[in-house]
Amino acid sequence: MTAERSMPTRNPRTTDSSLAESAPAGGMSRRAVLGGAAAVTSAVAVSAAVATPASATSGGTAGAASPTARLIAALPPASGIKKRSRLVDYEVVELASLLRAGKVTATQVTKAYLDRIDRFNGPFETYGDNGLYNAFVRIDRAGALAAAAAADTRFARARHTHEELPPLLGIPFGIKDSVAVKGLDAKDGSHAFDGNTALRDATAVHRLREAGAVILGHTVASAFSGSITGTFAGNAWNKDYVPGGSSQGSGVAPVARLAAACIGEETGGSIMMPSAANGASGIKPSLGTTSVAGLMPLSPGYDVLGPICRSVRDASLVLSIVLGPDAANDPLTLSAPDPFPAMPLTARKGRRPLAGVTIGIPQTDWMRTSRGIQAGTSPQGTYDADHLAAFNRLKQQLTSLGATVKEFPGLDVTDPANDPYFSSSDVLATIDGSNISPSSAVLSPNRYEIRYWDAVKDFAATRPADQAAALLAQYGRKAPGETSASFESATRLGGMIPASVRVEGEKRRRQLQANYQAALDKAGVDFMLVFSLGAQIGLRTGGGFPVYRAYYQLPNALAWPMVSFPVGYDSTVGLPIAAQFWGPRFSEPEIVQAAIDYQEHFPQYHNAAPPDPVADTPKVAPRVLRPVEPATPPELSNDPLVAEEALR
Asked: What is the pLDDT of residue 56?
């Protein structure tokens, strides 16, 4: 789709607690469903240990090190990099150093990943079980090899000219199926979007290319980015198990060694869940940290793009490159600090790098099991034996690094006094026969202002009848008294919510944010530690998540960041066990630094590699326009208006 969309604009001077404000009439164009947003160049500045946005160093003093020079200083020296058994096992920062030292070529690296894709991915364009990992739904082999060859030319030339080279030159990436890559279809997990060809790169993809990245292709997404469990891909450690969603291919590919790094998208759990399920290291940024221009949106005001890698330092490097203002295409990025706080790239020195840090374990962050939400039971009381053992070990490990790790109440959102927004049963208005919840009062107008339904309608008008019908069934609305769903009804509802109701919804969202911040402040907690998954995940044949955080969407409602990293493996199948740090909006540097410090001292988890899968007979799933994986229950939906309704 190429129709431009308008989005609510933000006052760049607003405080961290404020969220999206209403846009003036004819507001700034933010993004197209795919590639309608203009690409914006983003330089990157990095200190010896941290990455800083270019705007932080523009206009620097004469003789100061350039952003790229400081980045190179932060990379591990090639001579000190431990030899790994395979080329695909090196971290991004290690590859960057080896490439610059001439120890390996970008073409060798890219071919190594393409070879594994050929052997272990299975047939492309398959939204279903293809017999193998199915992490990539399509690749651009010719484009990737051309980019790798161009990178090698630059490396060779630089040995004579000493020119500064971009930070990710020659590093192969996968991009979620909902993000624009110029010349490729992006289908968001469904053939209903066949023909949805990007006219230009999404801002994040453009910034990766400017930093030298080799784009391999698109990683598979859950159908319409709608499920946090996923079944189209096979888990990186055992393809018979769920991969997590909706960025399922981006969670699988780095760990299965099909890409060095990936970009995922999260609206409600879609980076954290696949990172946790596959034992990847992923960062869900705060709302506004990264531009979402060129993303097929789900819920503007919640949607974020972020990296999924094998190590947190890799993810931090990637985030430092894609973050930053994109005023022309995503005004929400104007809400982030500019310059953005420096992103860490190396661990702090010493045996106790976390000294002075207080990490809280929220005891009201309820888990959901087969019996429903376990309110009143400590989250740790729901973990299976392996997860509980890993959790207790992690607490000891963090304490050994100097952190104070303590339980604290957190914020119980089952108490209406604490939560006026996220799962509130309040009805702010009744519009066109539908009750408007506080979250709907925010998200429905946001969707309306970016032409969420009209853009899909315009695209559907260009497609065959079966595609148009599938899109209408997915995005249309059946209003009370109407006999069938329609785009017009959906658009009408979003456009009829009064400004006063929307303002009340925004006010309540900020109040929820303030309430949670107050809970941290009262306990003296810097950031929190949780497990998104509390028991061995299930088989792809309907297993899902037996134990998981009931309020996995809460960080998105708060607009707060999270980082996920592996901390162990279960004792039966050998599937990964993962932890997450999460904290206040724009605290990415703090939570990421703590995770990097942890991985420096306990590298055995993120360095572990899964066994290569035994190939089943490769197969191509039928071309289904509304694929089912299986039918997603509302409590497992990535759509906040669906998932939050299940909590009411």
From this structure: 33
Q: What global pTM score does this model have?
A: 0.91
Q: How confident is residue 65, by pLDDT bands cut at 50, 70 and 90?
A: low
HSE-up of residue 455 (Cα within 13 Å, Cβ side): 24
Q: Which of 122-131, 152-161, 358-367, 609-618 has the lowest mean pLDDT?
A: 609-618
Report which secondary-structure segment, H or E, holds 308: strand 304-309
Distance separating alpha carbons of residues 338 and 325, to the nearest angstrom: 8
Catalytic residue, candidates 97, 225, 227, 246: 246
Confidence of residue 68 (pLDDT cuts 50, 70, 90): low
d(CA 490, CA 482): 12
What is the identity of the amino acid at 202?
A
Output Rg (C-alpha) for the chain, integer angstroms. 23
Q: Which two tokens stand for residue 424?
A: 């509130």
Residue 540 pLDDT greater than 50, yes or no: yes
Q: What is the DSSP string of 205-219?
A: HHHHHHTT-EEEEEE
Angstrom distance (rounded) from CA 106 to CA 146: 10
Residue 474 near residue 298 (C-beta atoms within 8 A): no
Question: Catalytic residue among 270, 299, 316, 437, which?
Answer: 270
Place 33 in a pLDDT band, splitting at 50, 70 and 90.
very low
Q: How far is CA 590 from CA 17, 73, 152, 325, 345, in A?
A: 18, 21, 35, 20, 12
Yes or no: say if 186 and 296 are a contact pair by the CB < 8 Å rule. yes
Distance of alpha carbon 442 from alpha carbon 499, whole angstroms? 10
Rounded to the nearest 10 degrees, how much is the dihedral formed by the CA atoms of 284, 290, 295, 300? 80
Strand extents, DSSP E, 350-454:
358-362, 367-369, 372-373, 404-408, 429-431, 434-436
Sequence-separated (6 or more) residues with CB below 8 Å from residue 559: 19, 286, 287, 288, 302, 513, 585
- pLDDT at residue 629 in the model: 61
Q: Residue 478 and residue 485: Cα distance in Å, rounded? A: 4
29, 97, 176, 637: the active-site residue: 176
What integer best gives the mean pLDDT of the chain?
89
Residue 29 has pLDDT above 50, yes or no: no
| Residue 435 predicted with pLDDT over 90 | yes
Q: Is 246 a catalytic residue?
A: yes
Round to whole Å and give the CA distance between 419 and 648.
12
Between CA 531 and CA 172 the distance in angstroms is: 30
Q: Is 29 annotated as catalytic?
A: no
- Of the candidates 411, 628, 416, the one whose C-alpha atom is nearest the C-alpha of residue 528 is 411
Return the exposure string of 113-123: e unless at least 16 CB atoms fall within 10 Å of the residue's CB, then b: bbebbeebbbe
CA within 13 Å, CB half, 149: 6
In the prediction, which pLDDT does 331 show? 94
Strands of the sheet containing 44-46, edge to edge, are: 44-46, 50-53, 343-344
Cβ–Cβ under 8 Å, residues 221 and 189: yes
Least confident of 14-18, 316-320, 458-462, 561-565: 14-18
Average pLDDT estimate for 359-364: 98
